[in-house]
Amino acid sequence: MNITFNESSRTFKLDAKDTTYMLMAADGEYLAHVYYGRKIPDTDMTSIMRFDESPFTPATNNRDRASYLDSLPMEYSCFGVGDYREPCFKIRAADGTSTCDLRYKGYKITKGKPALEGMPATFATEESPCSTLEVIMEDKPAGLEVSLFYTAFEKLDVITRSAIVRNVGDKAVYITRVLSTCVDFDTHEFDMITLNGSWARERAVERCRLHHGKQGIDSCRGESSHQNNPFVALCEHKADEDSGEVYGFNFVYSGNFAATAEVTQHKKTRFVMGINPLDFSWKLEPGEQFTAPEVVMVHSDCGIGKMSRTFHDLYRGNLIRGEYKDKRRPILINNWEATYFDFSTEKLISIAQQASKLGIEMLVMDDGWFGHRDSDNSSLGDWFVYEKKLQGGLKHLVDEVNKLGMKFGIWFEPEMVSPDSELYRAHPDWAIQIRGRELTMSREQYILDYSRKEVRDYVYSMMRKILDSANIEYIKWDMNRQHTEVGSFALPADRQQELWHRYVLGVYELMGRLTTDYPHILIENCSGGGARFDPGMLYFSPQIWCSDDTDAIERLKIQHGTSMCYPCSAMGAHVSDCPNHSCGRVTPFATRGDVALVGTFGYELDVTRIPEEDRNAIPAQIEKFKKFNPLVRTGDHYRIGNMFEDNSWDAWMFVAKDKSEALFEFVQVIGRPNERSRNIKLKGLDPDAYYYEESKPEEKLSGAALMYAGINVAKMWNVDGLYGDYVSKTLHFVRA
Ligand code: DGJ
What we know:
By secondary structure, the protein is of the alpha+beta class. It has a domain at 3-318: alpha-galactosidase from lactobacil brevis (Beta-galactosidase, Chain A, domain 5, Distorted Sandwich). It is built from 13 helices and 38 strands. The strands form seven sheets. It has a nine-stranded antiparallel beta sheet. The protein has a nine-stranded parallel beta sheet with strand order 28-27-26-25-22-21-20-30-29. Strands 5, 10, 13, 16, 17 and 18 form a six-stranded antiparallel beta sheet that branches. Strand 26 (522-525), helix 9 and strand 27 (543-545) form a beta-alpha-beta unit. The chain is globular, with a radius of gyration of 27 Å. (2R,3S,4R,5S)-2-(hydroxymethyl)piperidine-3,4,5-triol (DGJ) binds next to loops.
């Protein structure tokens, strides 16, 4: 078992691959944090505990509890008893007061990892086993028990955390804050890395030095959001891609979240992450329990790159599920940027006819096929075929596409309702809203109250009719607005603040039904581009649309940021038309292909209308994707260039786990006269092995030379230097 308990020091030790995490039941039954970092063999590290650090600290055996609690490294701090740092847990008790004081009661250590009720979470597999520690805490006056769950993966540097709160008393208690993790680090010498952005420029990497006080990111938009991704890394100031200590945190949740790093009076750092306490409250009746979602914590002793590769391995092996988990995804063509709402059966078939000849494997019919939807101002919720547009019906279209040897996929936005829809006219009360208050419109739509089972049942029955009516093999599940006026007609006043979380649980429940009932259907998540690119969604769909910005150059940044914690093989990425619809940039067709092959790959253009030359390039582009996709799906990803620091170039690699081959991709973003030649050091190869670039088998170089001296990228073009903007190149290195 990789989790042990030292009876004499009352210390728990969790060993992940190269990581140790330690906690202890300290004096007074406080659950204290001892250590998190590189692996150590010792089972008792209580000697490093600085119980005596507070400014007003009296003798060890007669502590001034408030001072003590305000400096003790805590595993799960409560509000109201003298720990003034960012708390994890707060309540409103039956008497209206907020104080809670959870103390250690007992523990269980088990093999494997229990599932989290109603919630996505990582899981153990035979190849990647783990053990779980459950620490039981109690607060007798409040009648509460809280179980803290810690799972340590044996072959990955991963510790996960979550919590379950149980009402063991006889009165209802309101939980007003229930975070999922807290780590009290013994230093403040950290930089914080976050992924921030907006629509069409999601997950830009930002790095700042921590300072005294609180700093963090959050979402109170009802989804994980374009603006802040539920990911934070804390790293040593000197840490870079390849060296230094890094701690990565990612929340397995798709709704409101908060992550805060606080530098305290003693120059230590508290980091907490969980459901955003803003506008959160949960009434827990006697006998009931509440589950807080999971936080994945990754430790790396070799820089940011290793942290990312650990996340990638965990998510590919222990989070993503279903038939496509380890399979190449069909190469699709999506009609959104080709036609927007203006399509017909004939038009779609003409796209499919052309696409099938070029080797494209699936046609995806995007928004606009249902109700009477000709623009974004109607019909969401009316999941029946718009016969006037799709003449001959859905089955006819799907059959025709199938006859061409192609699969067929379809778009839904199941959580939404348009005011102009039969559904809204029949059930206006099903929209999330507050009685007597004007409801804000966004993209001309409202959000359905997914806390209500009858609403989910209705939407699902409509979806099922469509899915059962034709041979549908892919769903794009979209979500295109953020929450406002959050209220439910089905919840009593003292439960209205539960709606944010109940909504997310409702979405998960419906996605769970869909994946169970239609296991062969490939699901791609999407939210106005990439506003729900989070691990919660990866549990239900092995791929997520990365961004509505399909421009190859903008995508360099977006995909670079996304790769911080999400595997490239999950990134929805397509070759689209030029000038690009989001930013007007014109890039070579080859570069668009090279950037998209990092992700799921597909096309988002009218293949009947693009230049002949581009169309002719598609079969070879597809072959290239097929050739390298196994490396992208199973290999180790290395970021080499960084568009955030140098706008002129980007480069990355995928290296086979056995180091037998590697794909190197380079994009010259802006050609500069004095930068015609550049040496780039490769990464991840076996230094002792010899490699050749596939097109030049006679030229062999050691992995050491390729990594420590590098390659000259100017020579890749066989011209005098690197000319032009937006040119790309891929090199395939094979072990000799
Ligand atoms: C937003 C998505 O990101 C797009 O790809 C497209 O599906 C539109 N929604 C359709 O409304």
